[in-house]
Design a protein that fits this description.
Layout: E1 4-9, E2 12-13, H1 20-38, E3 42-50, H2 54-62, H3 67-85, E4 92-95, H4 99-114, E5 118-128, E6 133-135, E7 153-162, H5 168-177, E8 182-183, H6 185-194, E9 202-203, E10 205-207, E11 216-217, E12 220-225, H7 227-232, H8 234-241, H9 245-248, E13 252-257, H10 261-275, E14 282-286, E15 289-290, H11 307-314, H12 316-325, E16 333-334, H13 337-366, H14 380-386, H15 388-397, H16 401-422, H17 424-427, H18 434-455, H19 462-469, H20 530-534, E17 538-548, E18 556-561, E19 566-571, H21 579-582, E20 586-590, E21 596-598, E22 601-603, E23 606-607, E24 609-611, E25 617-619, E26 631-632
Parallel strand pairs: 1-3, 1-13, 2-3, 3-4, 8-14, 13-14, 15-16
Antiparallel strand pairs: 5-6, 5-7, 7-9, 10-12, 11-12, 17-18, 17-20, 17-26, 18-19, 20-23, 21-22, 24-25
Length: about 625
C-alpha cells in the first residue's frame, strides 16, 4: 500500500498582516508535513491566500489601492516572507486571484449548476460583513456573531443559491458513518448538533454592482462568486492545476481554526458531493492562541504577539518547538514570550544542547574525536530509543503533538541520567575499563541520533545541526527503529557552535527602600540565627563540563550535575583552576541563590571557595564521597 499524505492549511484572508494565530496553524501543518516525509510518505502540503470578497475591497479602498495591488502586497510582502522566515515547508502556495484557480472555480460552478443545484432567488436576512455570509439569530451572542467586531446588517438582494439543505440528510449519515472525519470529537458533535435543524441553502453570488471584486459567475457576468465558494475550492485547484488530483486528493487532511468550522464542515462537503468529488479524509480543528492571562489576543487590547519579533528574539526552532509543545491542539492555549523562554532554556538548552556539548567534549577527550564501536542493542536505553518512533506515530495520528514531543524529551533526559550514572570521566581514568567507556559514549551518540531525527519536524534547523556536530547526516524515521546506525570511526568536528545558547535574562535589580520606611535592623555583631542559616540550600554538585567564559578571563562557566538536573554556574576561579582539572570534581553549591548574569552569561547559583595563605582560591569539596544533589546541613 502506497504511503501518501496530502495536507492543507487554511488559506489566509489577505486583508492584514499575519498574526500569531496564522503562524501557529502553519507550524502545526509544517510539523505534520515534515513528520510524514520522514516516515516515508509522499507528501504534498498546500497553503495560500484568500484574496476576494467585500472585506478585501474595503481594506484596499482604505489603503488607497486597487484590490489587486493591495492583495499582491499582502500576499507577496507580508504572508509569504513570514512563512519563508518560519521555514514553513509547503509544496504549493495557491492564490485565489491566480488564473489557474479562477478557471477551476468556474469549471466547478458550471458542474454544480448543470446538476441542478444552483438557482436564482431573492433573499432578505442578517448579513455579517466580517464573515461575509448571512447568519441566523441563533448564531449571535449579544447581537454579534462571535469573531465579528460589529453587528450584522439587514440585507435584501437577489443572488444565486446552492441547494445545501438538499444534502443535509446525506451529510448527517456521512458523519455518522465516518466518526473520525472531524477531529477532535467535540467539533464533530458540534456539527451534528447544527445539522439537527434545517441549514437552508447557501447564497453563492454577490451582485457585481455592489461587490465587483470576485470571480465572475460563468453564466452571469453581473454576479461574482461568494468568497467561501471561491476559497474552499483552492484546496482542490492547487492539485488539479498541477495534475495531482487523482493521486493526492483521497488522502486530504484540512487543518483549520475553530472559527471557520461551519464552512469547512458543512459548506465544503456538500459542495464536494454536488460536484461529484470525494470528501476529504480528515478535518483537524485547532483552538486559538490566547494571551497568558487567558484573554483573547488583539491589537486593540495591547496583548498581541508580533510573530517576527518573536523570531528575532528566540529563533525559528525555539518558536516552532514552544508553540507545538505548550499547546493542546483542540483547545485554546495561553502563550507568550515567557513560554518560549522557558522551553528554550530548559528543554532545548539544558536537556538537549547540554547533553550534546558534554558528549562532544568527552568524545574529543577520551576517544580521539571519533565515534567508537556500537554498543549493545539489548540495553534498556537502546530498547527505549528504538521504540520511540512507534510511540510518536500513535501520538501524532491522535493529534497529540505536545505529548509526542514530550516522549522524545523524556528520552533525552534519560540519556542525561545514563551519562551521569555511567560516569565516563571516571571510566577514562582506568585503561582496563576502556570498553565500558566507549560503550557509554556510543550509547549517548546513538541516543542523540535517534532523538534528533524524531525532533526534526519541530526543530527543522537545529536537529540536523545536532547531527552535524557528531559527524552524522540525515536519517529517516524508520532508521530510528534500528540501534547502531551511527557509523563507528566517524570523526566529529573539532569545533561546533552551541546548539541552543541560553537566553540571557536581565540581572535582578536591588530594590530601593521605600521613602520613610525603616531599615531592618542588622544582626548584632554580624551574627545570624539558625532560621537564617536554614534558608541557604547547600548541595553537592559534580562538575560535568567546564569552559572559559567567552568575555572574561577570570571567569569559568561550569555545568554541574545535581542528581536530578543540571545547572550552569559562573565562577571567578579561572586564574586558579584549568577547566580540565575541574571535570569530575565534586563541589559545594549554594543552590537557592537568585540567578544572576555575569558578563552576559547566566549563573544559577554559587560554588563555595576559600583563600589559602598564599592567596590561592581553593574550592570547597566534601571530605568523603557524596552523591550529586546531596543536601549539606
Amino acid at each position: 500500500m502506497s504511503k501518501i499524505f496530502y495536507e492543507t492549511a487554511a488559506i489566509d484572508y489577505a486583508n492584514a498582516a499575519p498574526h500569531i494565530g496564522h503562524v501557529y496553524e502553519k507550524i502545526i501543518c509544517d510539523f505534520l508535513a515534515r513528520f510524514h516525509r520522514l516516515d516515508g510518505y509522499e507528501t504534498n502540503f498546500v497553503t495560500g491566500t484568500d484574496e476576494h470578497g467585500e472585506k478585501i475591497a474595503r481594506a484596499a479602498k482604505n489603503a488607497g489601492q486597487e484590490p489587486q495591488a493591495f492583495v499582491d502586497y499582502v500576499s507577496e510582502q507580508l504572508f509569504q516572507p513570514t512563512y519563508r522566515r518560519l521555514l514553513i515547508s509547503y509544496d504549493d502556495y495557491i492564490r485565489t486571484t491566480s488564473e489557474r484557480h479562477k478557471r477551476f472555480v468556474q469549471e466547478i460552478l458550471r458542474k454544480v449548476y448543470e446538476a441542478g443545484d444552483i438557482y436564482y432567488a431573492e433573499y432578505e436576512g442578517l448579513y455579517s460583513v466580517g464573515s461575509e455570509r448571512f447568519v441566523t439569530e441563533k448564531e449571535l451572542v449579544n447581537g454579534i456573531l462571535p469573531g465579528d467586531s460589529e453587528p450584522p446588517i439587514l440585507r435584501k438582494e437577489a443572488n444565486y443559491f446552492f441547494r445545501m439543505e438538499k444534502y443535509r440528510p446525506w451529510l448527517v449519515e456521512y458523519l455518522q458513518a465516518h466518526p473520525h472525519l472531524i477531529q477532535p470529537q467535540g467539533y464533530r458533535n458540534e456539527v451534528l448538533e447544527i445539522l439537527k435543524e434545517p441549514i437552508g441553502d447557501l447564497s453563492i453570488s454577490r451582485p457585481k454592482d455592489r461587490v465587483p471584486w470576485g470571480i465572475p459567475i460563468p453564466w452571469d457576468e453581473n454576479h461574482v462568486t461568494y468568497v467561501w465558494f471561491d476559497a474552499l475550492l483552492a484546496y482542490v485547484s492547487s492539485l488539479a492545476s498541477r495534475g495531482l488530483f487523482e493521486k493526492f486528493w483521497p488522502h486530504a487532511w484540512h487543518i483549520i481554526g475553530k472559527d471557520i468550522l461551519k464552512p469547512h464542515a458543512i459548506f465544503w462537503p456538500t459542495m464536494l458531493k454536488s460536484a461529484g468529488m470525494p470528501i476529504y479524509k480528515r478535518l483537524v480543528v485547532h483552538g486559538h492562541i490566547l494571551a497568558m492571562d487567558g484573554r483573547k489576543m488583539g491589537k486593540s487590547l495591547g496583548n498581541a504577539i508580533d510573530p517576527l519579533a518573536l523570531l528575532d528574539k528566540f529563533g525559528v526552532d525555539a518558536v516552532h518547538y514552544a508553540l507545538l509543545r505548550d499547546t493542546t491542539l483542540g483547545s485554546d492555549s495561553p502563550f507568550g514570550e515567557e513560554v518560549v523562554h522557558q522551553r528554550l532554556n530548559s528543554d532545548l538548552a539544558n536537556d538537549l544542547g547540554n547533553l550534546l556539548s558534554r558528549v562532544r567534549t568527552m568524545l574529543l577527550r577520551y576517544c580521539g574525536g571519533v565515534i567508537p564501536a556500537p554498543s549493545s542493542a539489548d540495553s534498556e536505553i537502546a530498547k527505549a530509543g528504538v521504540a520511540l518512533a512507534e510511540k510518536m506515530r500513535k501520538e501524532v495520528d491522535a493529534l497529540r503533538i505536545h505529548l509526542a514531543l514530550e516522549e522524545v524529551l523524556q528520552y533525552v533526559r534519560s540519556l542525561n541520567k545514563f551519562v551521569n550514572d555511567a560516569k565516563p570521566w571516571e571510566l577514562a581514568r582506568d585503561p582496563s575499563r576502556k570498553k565500558k567507556l566507549e560503550d557509554a559514549l556510543y550509547t549517548a551518540v546513538e541516543g542523540l541520533r535517534i532523538a534528533s531525527v524524531l525532533l526534526e519536524p519541530a526543530l527543522p534547523t537545529k536537529a540536523p545541526e545536532l547531527r552535524a556536530a557528531l559527524g552524522l547526516g540525515d536519517y529517516t524515521l524508520a532508521q530510528t527503529e534500528t540501534w547502531g546506525l551511527a557509523p563507528a570511526g566517524t570523526p566529529i568536528p573539532q569545533e561546533a557552535p552551541i546548539l541552543f545558547p541560553k537566553l540571557e535574562v536581565g540581572e535582578p535589580k536591588a530594590e530601593s527602600p521605600k521613602p520613610g520606611a525603616a531599615a531592618e535592623p542588622s544582626a548584632a555583631n554580624g551574627l545570624i540565627g539558625i532560621d537564617d542559616f536554614a534558608k541557604v540550600d547547600f548541595r553537592v554538585a559534580e562538575v560535568i563540563k567546564a569552559e572559559k567564559h567567552p568575555k572574561a578571563d577570570k571567569l569559568l562557566v561550569l555545568t554541574l550535575n545535581l542528581g536530578d538536573h543540571t545547572r550552569q554556574v559562573v565562577s571567578g576561579i579561572a586564574q586558579h583552576y584549568t577547566p580540565e582539572s575541574l571535570v569530575g570534581k565534586k563541589l559545594v553549591l549554594v543552590a537557592n541563590l537568585k540567578p544572576a548574569v555575569l558578563r552576559g552569561v547566566e549563573s544559577q547559583g554559587m560554588i563555595l571557595a576559600g583563600e589559602n595563605a598564599e592567596g590561592k582560591i581553593v574550592v570547597v569539596t566534601p571530605e568523603q564521597d557524596l552523591p550529586p544533589g546531596a543536601k549539606i546541613r
